[in-house]
Design goal:
The chain has helices at 3-8, 32-42, 46-49, 58-68, 76-82, 88-100; strands at 16-19, 25-28. It is mostly helical. A two-stranded antiparallel ribbon has the order 1-2. A hairpin with a 5-residue loop joins strand 1 (16-19) and strand 2 (25-28). It is globular, with a radius of gyration of 14 Å.
Length: 115
């Protein structure tokens, strides 16, 4: 892989900040330890197969796992309480950026990695 290709490829551990209903910005990231945890939880590699069917149980869990690395006392229940339905477009965008480096809102036929 060339250096130029390496710059364009999304990284599964991009740091992204997200602000939930309490107004506190938190860093969301997915180091490989978390990716292994998610593979165990969902029974498949989310790197290979991606994430399909985000729902009311899956999305809060994914967000919590991305936040708990930097905020260990944070609970899943607290994250669920801080997620409001009107925030979903932003939450999904920030999750995608943190997990894959891809902005799902990019206006092209193929989303480009965030820079």
């Amino acid at each position: 892989m060339s250096e130029q290709q390496a710059e364009v490829c999304p990284k599964p551990t991009n740091d992204v900040f997200i602000t939930l209903a309490d107004g506190r910005p938190r860093r969301m990231r997915y180091p490989f330890r978390e990716l292994k945890h998610l593979k165990q939880k969902f029974g498949k590699s989310l790197i290979r197969g991606g994430i399909e069917g985000l729902d009311e149980e899956t999305l809060p869990y994914l967000i919590w796992r991305g936040l708990v690395t930097d905020d260990p006392p944070l609970t899943l229940e607290r994250v669920e309480d801080l997620m409001e339905s009107w925030m979903m477009p932003t939450i999904i965008r920030q999750f995608s950026l943190a997990y894959s480096g891809i902005d799902p809102n990019a206006h092209s036929s193929q989303a480009e990695p965030a820079k």
